[in-house]
Amino acid sequence: MVENPQDPQNPESQSGIKQFIRRLPAAISEIVKGKAAGIADSSRLREERITLDWNEASARTVISEIEDILRRGVTSRSEEETLNDADRALVEEISLATSRAGISNITRTEAYLASYQAYPELHWAFLAHMVSRNAGWNMTDLRGSRVCDILDEETKRTMYRFIERSNALIFQDAYPQLLLYIKSRELGSSRFHLLSYFHVSRFMRPFWERFWIDRGSTLLTVGLIINEQNYIEKRVIRHPYYQKYVTDKAHFHISSITGLNQVVFPLMEDCECVQAGKEDEAANSFSPTSEQEDAASDDEISAEAICQAAYGLLAEGCRGDGEVRRLAGRVVSDFGSLTARIALGKNLYAMLMGLRAVRSGAQRFAESVPHTGSREDYWPEFFTANVKEALTPSLQGAELLKGETLPPGERLYSPKLLDAWGDTPYEPITREDWLKDWGALDGISPPQSPYLCDISREHRLGILKTALAHDAVADEPT
């Protein structure tokens, strides 16, 4: 009879488990120390705040306009016939630009950054850039050391499609809105009547029209957070396929145990960004401490220039002399809940743009480090995109318990996104408006920064947890 390698009575199968148990005391000690230090580190990040420009009167006006939209119901009248030649050309231009910039998580992430650099009042674009980086990291985790041997290949591929689809759909909905604002600035008049031609929910027009008047970045950001999370609710989160194979599966909830449910904002210190001799332009267009977010340059920046800048960032970005020493962020406690995701988005925004240390550090990182999808982008002392320099799974936990970093040639494998996954086509997207009832108004309130915002040690503990899980199974016979 062949002995079952997973049989608990089999001595060989107990080696990994014994190692896991033996390392538990050290791991628990790390957790206790990390929690205490996280509180102190968060206090330091919160020392200097930037007042976010929430205007309650503007919020009430927007709410009233959305209530009127709901009372009127969905109109069946097609507005397509009202387009003049200039508007039709603009719709085609923006559609083409969105298609080109939406090729992959890499191009989407950089397109968001280029929009923010050109128009810093578009706070949401910078938040989207940082969150989209996290989506890329989560996708490469599925091929790297963090998830290796924990999930089977079919599950990895399904979870990849889940993350990729969410990232792609949000971009498809939001990027045309950003470009419409940019074109409106170029033309000197609002073009938000064209939102419906990009199948943008009626919910968003009042926010953009108000933003055009008062440049209230915070209210617009809250509107976009609510809109994008509702946009993917039925199309991804509640989609029958993803409910069956992702959100209702045990591994989706286990992610909280292994630390794969963290959104991190790397904070870089003393970074220099040199972009083909244009240091002054970069500094002027992307000032990390500017209080006058809505001050516009005399020379308007075209939508075409934004797209070109996005591709330029891919080729010209540089790390400089900066170093990521701290991570701000939050733990995603209930990704399946629409209300929780909206609250998380508002927390992340208030942290990213309302705490000076977080804003300046994240901006230094964003402008200095091109997005590749590898976690080596922000923690090269832990991760490597070179599989030949990676630790074997059975050594991960032991090495992480030895010190604060990992030695060269003995790091965790985190591949670049384009090396880990190819292009993934997905099924046609439903175009109906998600705005159905007054519940959409619940999240329109001032965002609040969380008390615990430094996640550096908790993120490292998440890495340690997955490493110990690897240690527990890596030595078992196959």
How would you explain this protein's 3D organization?
This protein has 478 residues and is mainly alpha-helical. It has one domain. Helix content is 55%, strand content 4%. It contains 17 helices and 4 strands. The strands form 2 sheets. A two-stranded antiparallel ribbon has the order 1-2. Strands 3-4 form a two-stranded parallel ribbon. β3, α15 and β4 form a beta-alpha-beta unit. α4 packs parallel to α6, α4 packs across α12 and α5 packs antiparallel against α6. The longest helix is centred in the middle third of the chain and has 35 residues. The radius of gyration is 23 Å and the shape is globular. The N terminus is likely disordered.
Can you give the mean pLDDT? 81
Q: How many discrete structural domains?
A: 1
pLDDT < 50 stretches = 1-14, 76-80, 271-299, 311-320
Order of SSEs, N→C? HHHHHHHHHHEHHEHHEHEHH
Count of alpha and pi helical runs? 17
Which word captures the global form? globular
Provide the helix percentage: 40-55%
Amount of beta strand: under 5%
Please outline the helices and strands.
Elements: H1 15-45, H2 56-72, H3 85-101, H4 105-118, H5 123-141, H6 153-187, H7 205-214, H8 217-237, H9 240-247, H10 250-258, E1 262-269, H11 279-285, H12 303-316, E2 323-331, H13 338-354, H14 356-368, E3 383-384, H15 396-402, E4 412-413, H16 417-420, H17 456-474
Parallel strand pairs: 3-4
Antiparallel strand pairs: 1-2
Helix pairs in contact: 1-17, 3-6, 4-5, 4-6, 4-12, 5-6, 6-8, 7-8, 8-13, 13-14, 15-17
Protein name: DUF2515 domain-containing protein
Pfam families: DUF2515 (PF10720)
InterPro entries: DUF2515 (IPR019658)
